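Can you give me the bound-state structure? Components:
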Amino acid sequence: MNDIITTPQAVQIVAAALFAVGVYGVLARRNLMIILMSVELMLNGVNLSLVGFSREMAHLGPDATGALPADGGQVLVLMAMAVAAAEVAVGLSILIAIFRHIRTVDVDAPRATALRD
Amino acid sequence: MPALLVLLLGAVMVFAGAVTVTRRNPIHAVLAMLVSLSGAGLLMLALHSHFLAAMQILLYAGAIMVLFTFVIMLLSLKESEMGPEPASRKKWLAAAAAILLLYVLAYSLSAREPVQFQQPFLDAEVAAREASDGPLPRAQQVGFGSTEHFGRFLYTDYALPFELITVLVMAAVAAVIMLARRPDRHSLEATKLTGGGPA
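Here's the bound-state model for the whole set.
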């Protein structure tokens, strides 16, 4: 198997597939909650890709500034996780605010309501 | 970890992701997503990123998915409140766009020079020191991806971004409090005037 596809390549393919599934969810679905979950899937795919790239560089020693080159990818994933948590909290409260006003989580409904009025 | 195992785990994760984006019942979607995120945690563990794997389980599978579950229970959506199913033409177009994206990503990835994972620098360092000085105390066995390794760079080189995250989280907390509080009398009247809302 390793001569057809190497492990780093397999990791990147899996990450890209997760991202593509998330893109499908964002484009095809109308339920705002599912769209938020799809965005999480996409973020997760990118995180996985970053971890894979960071692992590829893990064997390199400190650079001129004394930092390990692989550290950047690791810390970026941690930051992305924190941003994702903040994003979900804000996104879900927007969802609740919309639901309170128009009693639906259909993303096409707010526009329809605005047009009707 | 051989490529075949990564692909098998990835197949489970992508299948769970596909279930997430196709289920109508949001609870089913959340449970499928939990499988997908836990799989990503396992893969991070296999990629020698132990601390990130723990964070993945704690933050994603723990905090974020529980938040989704809470909101689903809070709203307890009825069938009519979820809106109609998207048109099948829209679904096919979205699937075509996703497959096209995957093809472009896979094509650009295949252009890279194939590499193999090698022993991380930090682990090699520990192994070399243990070979010359005998077994090291636990506190000095800092391997790649461990909590000690994270602590080293997070509070030195990356201290500023780390502190800025707290500003972001503060802003998110303020935004959530603003958004989730009950609408006051003024905005309720505005809703009545425009005719929208449940009244």
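A couple of observations. The radius of gyration of chain B is 24 Å. Residues 156 and 162 of chain B are 10 Å apart (CA to CA).
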